[in-house]
Specification:
Elements (H helix, E strand, L loop, with lengths): L11 E12 L8 E5 L2 E13 L7 E6 L9 H19 L6 E4 L6 H9 L3 E5 L6 H11 L5 E6 L2 E11 L8 E10 L13 E8 L6 H11 L2 H4 L1
Parallel strand pairs: 1-5, 5-6
Antiparallel strand pairs: 1-3, 2-3, 3-4, 6-10, 7-8, 8-9, 9-10
The chain binds zinc ion.
Zinc ion binds next to strand 3.
């Protein structure tokens, strides 16, 4: 289906946690529930895996949260659904997916090791309060010089790119940490954009050979515009 891949020759997909159904009246035995304003709200949630980048967005598969099997913690529960989903997709269509992009809840050894064992590369956003190995590489990279500086890129005045190799706790293979620091343009009329003039995106990836531009494209393609500005 994607002979030439979806981004720079790679077939890239993104994971997205989604709520599928919600009601204060109807429910079934597989429903999740939350108490809100004294009412019990019943719902289902799950994770969708779809292609991102060029070509039509194709939903490859989705999986639902299973009460009793998946953790009741929101992030942990979503992660266990996502792991099952990735295994299902890969076992059905080996070598179709090159890279899976996921948000910060997947920035941990559990997800990264799961991708490695499924022979799929992953790009994940970095959580604010992460494990020690990520904190250390963050600090170390902050003191370094940028490896690339892009001028007038993507509506930004300047993007400085920093990177380091590091080992995450409990992951055997070395990983790559990349930081994109964007400096915003002022609008033509001199007014600043509503949001901050400086934005940072930090990611961790298993993919050591991917170009910094390709990673940036993947992150942009997996994120809604509001999130990235
Ligand atoms: Zn239900």
């Amino acid at each position: 289906m994607y002979d030439k891949g979806t981004i720079d020759g790679y077939t890239v997909t993104a994971m997205d946690g989604t709520k599928f159904f919600g009601s204060n009246k109807k429910k079934c035995t597989d429903c999740l529930t939350i108490e809100k304003d004294g009412k019990t709200h019943s719902f289902h949630s799950g994770v969708v895996m779809s292609t991102i980048g060029e070509g039509p967005t194709l939903v490859l598969d989705f999986d639902m949260y299973k009460p009793g099997e998946d953790s009741t913690d929101k992030d942990e529960g979503e992660l266990s659904v996502a792991k099952r989903l990735l295994s299902e997709v890969v076992s059905r269509q080996r070598n179709v997916i090159d890279i899976v992009v996921y948000d910060a809840l997947a920035c941990n050894s559990v997800w990264i090791n799961h991708c490695i064992s499924n022979q799929v590369d992953t790009v994940v956003r970095v959580k604010k309060n992460n494990n020690n190995s990520v904190k250390e590489v963050k600090k170390k990279t902050n003191k370094m010089e940028p490896v690339e500086v892009w001028v007038d890129e993507n509506g930004y005045k300047e993007i400085k790119v920093y990177e380091s190799l590091f080992y995450m706790d409990n992951v055997e293979r070395n990983l790559r940490y990349v930081k994109y620091a964007m400096k915003d343009n002022n609008n033509a009329d001199g007014r600043r954009r509503q949001l901050s003039a400086r934005t940072q995106i930090m990611i961790v990836t298993t993919c050591l050979k991917l170009s910094l531009k390709s990673i940036y494209k993947m992150i942009r393609a997996s994120t809604t515009p509001q999130e990235i500005q």
